[in-house]
Amino acid sequence: MMFSIKDLHRKPSTIFWWILLAVGLLAIGTFFYGEEQNRRWMVVKTQCTGCRIRMINIGMALMLYGDDGSGDKMLLPDTLEPLLQSEELEFLDFDPVEFRHCPATGEPYRYVAYGSLDWSLDLEHIPLLLDAPGNHRKFSSKWSEGTTFVTFANGRQNVVEDISCFMDIYHRFGQFLPEREREILREHCQTWDAESLKSR
């Protein structure tokens, strides 16, 4: 088929302009969608970081509270409340209303009240402060579904994945605990799971 010079200068059809418009709108939509995803990811990352720092500070405060020079035991309070009145811990700048809750969801942290722990125990495997199971959801591959923060009795923190209930944490870490501490953790986890079911 032969084309004349006149055919080459023919104006684009209406279909061409519709296609061009659709491509332009798709490009703009993709850009704004990516920007929104980045914004949400930054919010989640900031909240996760804030939650981890808060839990680490509470763990540090509990260690300082328990290390009163009384000997071979870390003496722990029955609740987190005494941390607010301790003059030695003022430098941590706790907010009395917010410090017991995750900044992302407002969920309260769960504190395992062991009463006391022998300093000779393997403290890095004894869960002391727990975030709610699956409290932090992912908007990037860095945070998986079911991410839970756990602070241990030596102040170390772990990011535990694929946790759906508190008893999952017991099954994950209870095997490392002596019998007394294992039973205390089990009772706490069962109570918290029962409370979670009632609140649904």
Helix content: 40-55%
Uncertain segments are: 139-144
The dominant shape is elongated
Number-wise, the strands total 6
Topology pattern, helix = H, strand = E: HHEHEEEEEHH
The end-to-end distance, rounded to whole angstroms, is 73 Å
Q: Average the pLDDT over all residues and give the rounded result.
A: 77
**Cα-based radius of gyration, to the nearest Å:** 27 Å
Strand proportion, as a percent range, falls in 5-15%
Q: What can be said about the biggest beta sheet?
A: 4 strands, antiparallel
Strand order of the largest sheet: 2-4-5-6
Quaternary class: single chain
The SS-based structural class is alpha+beta
Helix tally equals: 5
Model description:
Strands 2-4-5-6 form a 4-stranded antiparallel β-sheet, covered by helices on one side. The radius of gyration is 27 Å and the shape is elongated. Helix content is about 45%, strand content about 10%. The protein has about 200 residues and is α+β, with helices and mostly antiparallel strands. Helix 4 runs antiparallel to helix 5. About 5% of the residues have low confidence.
A few lines on this structure:
It is built from five helices and six strands, in the order ααβαβββββαα. It is α+β, with helices and mostly antiparallel strands.
Secondary structure elements and pairings:
Layout: H1 5-8, H2 14-66, E1 73-75, H3 82-85, E2 110-111, E3 116-118, E4 127-130, E5 148-152, E6 157-160, H4 166-173, H5 179-199
Antiparallel strand pairs: 1-3, 2-4, 4-5, 5-6
Helix pairs in contact: 4-5
